[in-house]
Amino acid sequence: GRRAWAKWNMPAKQYRTWSPAQSFLLPPSPLEWLPSGHLAYMVLDVVNELELRAIEKTIEEKDARGTRPYAPRMMTALLLYAYCSGTYSSRKIARGTFEDVALRVLAGGEHPHFTTVNEFRLEHRKALAGLFEQVLSMCRRAGLVSLGHVSIDGSKVQANASKHKAMSYKRMSEDEKRLQGEVEALLAQADATDRKEDVQYGVGVDPQDLPQELQRREDRLARIREAKAALEQEAAQTRAAALEKQAAMHRQRAATDPDPTVRKCAETLAAARTEQAKALRDDDEDPPAAASSDGLPLHRVPTTPRGAPKDKAQRNFTDPDSRIMQRNGVFMQAFNCQIAVEHSHQIIVAEAVSNQAPDVEYLAPVLARTVETVGAPDVVSADAGYYSDANVAMCRKAGVEPLLAVGRSGHRHRENETPSKTGFGSQTKAAMRESLLADRGRDLYKRRKAIVEPPFAHIKSVRGFNRFSLRGLSKVRSEWSIVCLCHNLLKLFSA
Predict the structure, then answer these.
(1) CA 431 vs CA 2, 47, 385, 387, 414: distances in Å
(2) Which helix (H) or strand (E) holds 119?
(3) Which of 70-79, 298-307, 379-388, 420-429 has the lowest mean pLDDT?
(4) CA 136/CA 72 separation, integer angstroms
(5) Residue 288 belongs to what H/E stretch?
(6) How far apart are CA 18 and CA 179, in angstroms?
(7) Contact predicate 333/161, CB 8 Å
(8) 305, 296 in Cβ contact below 8 A?
(9) What are the helix and strand counts (H, E) for the chain?
(10) Which of 358, 291, 296, 354 is nearest to 157 (CA)?
(11) Contact call for residues 60 and 69 (beta carbons, < 8 A)
(12) What pLDDT shows up at residue 423?
């Protein structure tokens, strides 16, 4: 009885006051909405220090009439914080200025439309990509960059296109013939139907179903022919470049070989290769380069000796710059993203993107970017995909010690194993294997994975960047620069 009496006479549980409709007597400062030390405050501080004159100049050159533009620093802060927190959709960024407290603080009460966010990102993509070096400079001033050991690696990132929208040259040719036949059959059927309806209903009555079906096939046929012509043009120019390279080699041999017969033969071959290249060249088209203006390798269409694309040569209808690549045994429409990472705090000191799948041609331009931005490292390490005798010579010429794996197990020490037992024909390769088997080389190389692979894991798994939002190689390169910039910004924030 006493327990029941005590239970029914206990005071009611008291809760904290909850008044969602209560107005503030004095408006609170937006800078008090987030806890101290929040990432948004760091982004505000960094953006206020960045040089944004390139963006401001572009905006100021526009017509002063019309709606006033949003502040460039506010738009930059929104994009940087969104990319740091794993939000890449312009619609989600715009919605976050209403729903996300951090984005509300950064926007300062403004709510740009998602088309405005996307237009700012596209229009000023080169200037935004240029902020990578400014943030990297902040990391250097903070003492986060050490050039004792830099590791380089690449990873395939899915393009904003489906691999099912890619078509091989062989299938283009087959579909072109099939669709051409279907279009002709539909035209004949439409003509017969028109004549029949003219007799039955009078002149001027069109069939109801055939035009749409015919239009679909004609549109697809036009797209296939356009892609096929572009692929043929690219293949012809690629073959012409290869022939011109051969001609240059023959001319050099004709000028230096001591044997008169060899010189005469080389002159004949050089002239023949030059004529073949001239026949393939189209004076109205710029020839595709083997590398872009910044030294990054570009995909080259596989060609026949006549300069036609091979049957397996492919082109994507959605993003023609992207290529089908393989990652972990899976084929995907992708770009090859490269980073160079220093060993002390995993700061990305150089980044690059291109559509060439093999990694070997990326070592030289990525190392050159590293030297340009922060200086030459003491040691550079990379996996077997980057090894070539030319890359080893290039590193040593730049004053950098290379540690490049010569095979899947080339860096692992095995008892009683010497370079002479490996079967490698190149002396450079054998010397590199010997360096990797030495105690110092083995200790340095085993750090490679711990240096360069965590940034990729954080970018893809933690921040969720597994697919580009933009299309085209130029736009993709700018977006990757922003992604790497935000990686360094988060490192700076953690420090």
Answers:
(1) 91, 48, 17, 13, 16
(2) helix 114-123
(3) 420-429
(4) 21
(5) none
(6) 68
(7) yes
(8) no
(9) 18, 8
(10) 354
(11) no
(12) 47
Neighbouring CB atoms inside 10 A of 254's CB total 18
- What is the number of other CB atoms lying within 10 angstroms of the CB of residue 489? 24
The Cα–Cα gap between 407 and 474 comes to 33
| Closest C-alpha among 384, 371, 372, 481 to residue 424 | 384
Q: Go through 211-223 and write b for each residue having 16 or more CB atoms within 10 A of its CB, e for each that does not.
A: eeebeebbebbee
Distance CA 459, CA 457 (A): 6
pTM exceeds 0.70 for this model: yes
What single-letter amino acid sits at 248? A
Distance CA 239, CA 234 (A): 9
**Distance in angstroms (rounded) separating the CA atoms of residues 309 and 303:** 4
What is the C-alpha separation between 11 and 18, in angstroms, rounded?
Answer: 20
Average pLDDT, the chain: 83
What count of Cα atoms within 13 Å lies in the side-chain half-sphere of residue 21? 0
pLDDT score of 134 more than 90: yes
Of the chain, the end-to-end C-alpha distance in Å amounts to 63
Which residues lie closer than 8 Å to 434 by C-beta, 6 or more apart?
418, 419
Calculate the alpha carbon distances from 236 to 49, 113, 241 in Å: 49, 45, 9
Q: If DSSP codes are grouped into helix, strand and coil, which group holds residue 157?
A: strand
Return the exposure string of 12-50: e unless at least 16 CB atoms fall within 10 Å of the residue's CB, then b. Answer: eeeeeeeeeeeeeeeeeeeeeeeeeebbbbbbbebbeeb
Alpha carbon of residue 269 to chain centroid: 40
Question: Which is nearest to 473 in space by CA: 300, 358, 369, 335?
Answer: 335
Residues 132, 349: Cα–Cα separation, whole Å: 9
**How many CA atoms does the CB half-sphere of 39 hold within 13 Å?**
19
Distance CA(281)–CA(2), nearest Å, equals 104
DSSP state of 109: T
Q: Exposed, middle or buried: residue 209 (CB in 10 Å: 0-12, 13-18, 19+)?
A: exposed
